[in-house]
Design goal:
mainly beta; 398 residues; Porin
Length: 398
C-alpha cells in the first residue's frame, strides 16, 4: 500500500460519496467510526448512467483506450445503533455496471459489492476496544487508493480489518495498541502476479493530554507486506513517529504525525521521512471539509524497482445550499518516485478533480449529477493517460 493503512478510498468518496468511515482516517489513528447519528435500518435502490473515456497517450496491448456509455444499478442497506456501551454500524452496497461498448481485454459487465461493520465497546471509562472491518469486491480500484495500479485492473477483492485496545492510565495519559490486516487480489493474472499482497501492521501509541483539546502523541509501528505470487518483493518497515491531535472546536479537529520510516526489502534498505496529517471541519452542519496528506514509501507497482516513495494529498468539500440542493467537489494529487538504483528511475504525477450536484426531489428520492477528470503524467510514457467521466443518477431510500 502507499503508506501503512493510508486513506484507502478517498477518491471513491470524491466520485461516489461513499462512507468515509468505512475505512476511517486510519493512517492518523482515528481508530473508531463516527457514532454520531442513530440510523434505523434503511434500504436504497440506485441507478445511474453516463459516459467514460480513458485515453492512453501511447498505444499498448496492455493499456487500450476506453470509450463507452455505461449503465449501473444497485442496492444498499445501512444501520447504526447508538448504544451507549456498544455502538455499532454496518453498511452494504451492491451494484452491476455494464459498459455498452465493452472494456478492452475485459468483459462488458462488472460487479461491485462493499460491506463494512464498525463497533466500539466501552468496558469502563478507562478501557475501550473497537474494530473496523471493510470488504469490497469490485472493478478498477483507482491508483490514488494506494492499493492498485494506474491501469484498468478488472475485478478485484480487497479486505481490511483494524482492531485496537485503548486504555486511559490517568486522566491525561493513555495508550492504544492496534493490529491491522489488509490485502488485495486481482482476477486478471497479468496484474495479480506482481500486485497480489497482504499486509500486517502493528502499532503502539502513547498519548498525553496537555489540555482538553490537545494531546501529544508518540508512536511506533511495524509493517510486514507480503506479496502472494511475486518472489523477492516482501517489505518490512519500522516507523518512529511523534505528533499531535487537536480539536479547535466540536466541529473542527485535526491530527498530524511526523518521523522516520525504516524501509527494508530484498532489493533495498532505506530510511526516509514519514508524515501524515488530516483535518475535518464541519460548518453549521451545512458544509463538511475533509483534507489529508501522507508522505512515505509505497508497495504498489514496484515491478523491477527497488522502492517507491511519494506524496498523496486530497480535499473533499460537501455543502448543502438548501434542504434540497447540495454540491460537492474534490481534488487529489499524487507524486511518486520509483527508484531502480540507476538510470531507469521513473517519476509520476497524477491528479483527480471532481464536482457533483444533488437534488432531493422527494423525501426519499435524490437525484445526482457528477463529473470527474483524472490524469497521469509519467517519465514512462506507456503509463500516461487522461480520463473524463460524467454520470446522472437517482437513489431511492426506504
Amino acid at each position: 500500500m502507499r503508506t501503512p493503512t493510508l486513506i484507502l478510498l478517498f477518491v471513491a468518496i470524491i466520485s461516489s460519496k461513499a462512507n468515509l468511515n468505512a475505512q476511517g482516517l486510519v493512517a492518523v489513528q482515528n481508530y473508531s467510526a463516527d457514532f454520531k447519528t442513530e440510523q434505523p435500518l434503511t434500504f436504497s435502490l440506485s441507478s445511474q448512467g453516463g459516459y467514460d473515456t480513458l485515453s492512453y497517450r501511447v498505444n499498448s496491448p496492455f493499456a487500450e483506450n476506453i470509450e463507452s456509455a455505461f449503465v449501473q444499478g444497485g442496492f444498499g442497506a445501512a444501520y447504526t445503533d447508538m448504544d451507549q456501551t456498544t455502538p455499532w454500524t454496518f453498511s452494504l452496497d451492491t451494484s452491476v455496471i455494464h459498459y455498452v461498448d465493452g472494456v478492452p481485454r475485459f468483459d462488458d459487465t462488472f460487479y461491485n459489492a462493499r460491506a463494512s461493520v464498525n463497533f466500539e465497546h466501552r468496558f469502563s471509562e478507562r478501557l475501550r476496544i473497537s474494530n473496523n472491518f471493510f470488504l469490497t469486491y469490485g472493478v478498477e480500484p483507482n491508483n490514488a487508493f494506494g492499493v492498485s495500479t494506474a491501469l484498468w485492473n478488472g475485478q478485484f477483492l480487497y479486505g481490511y480489518n483494524n482492531f485496537n485496545v485503548s486504555y486511559a492510565w490517568t486522566p491525561r495519559f493513555s495508550t492504544t495498541t492496534s493490529y491491522t490486516i489488509d490485502g488485495i487480489m486481482y482476477e486478471d493474472e497479468i496484474i495479480a502476479t506482481p500486485e497480489d499482497r497482504y499486509t500486517h501492521l502493528f502499532a503502539q501509541q502513547f498519548s498525553y493530554a496537555i489540555s482538553k483539546r490537545t494531546s501529544l502523541v508518540a508512536e511506533y509501528r511495524y509493517r510486514m507486506m507480503i506479496f502472494d505470487k511475486a518472489v523477492g518483493k516482501d517489505i518490512n518497515s519500522h516507523f518512529a513517529l511523534v505528533g499531535v491531535d487537536h480539536a479547535w472546536s466540536e466541529r473542527m479537529s485535526g491530527s498530524a504525525r511526523v518521523g522516520a520510516e525504516f524501509y527494508s526489502s530484498d532489493r533495498s534498505d532505506e530510511v526516509g521521512p514519514y508524515a501524515e496529517t488530516a483535518l475535518n471541519y464541519s460548518v453549521d452542519r451545512q458544509t463538511m471539509v475533509r483534507w489529508f496528506a501522507a508522505l512515505g514509501f509505497n508497495g504498489a507497482e514496484l515491478a523491477a524497482f527497488s522502492s517507491r516513495y511519494g506524496l498523496n494529498t486530497g480535499i473533499q468539500i460537501n455543502h448543502n445550499i438548501t434542504k434540497r440542493f447540495s454540491v460537492n467537489s474534490g481534488a487529489s494529487y499524487s507524486y511518486s518516485q520509483f527508484d531502480s538504483g540507476g538510470a531507469g528511475d521513473v517519476t509520476e504525477h497524477s491528479a483527480l478533480l471532481s464536482a457533483g450536484l444533488g437534488y432531493q426531489l422527494l423525501e426519499n428520492l435524490n437525484l445526482t449529477a457528477n463529473y470527474s477528470y483524472s490524469f497521469l503524467d509519467s517519465s514512462d510514457a506507456l503509463r500516461e493517460f487522461d480520463r473524463h467521466r460524467v454520470s446522472l443518477g437517482a437513489t431511492a431510500s426506504f
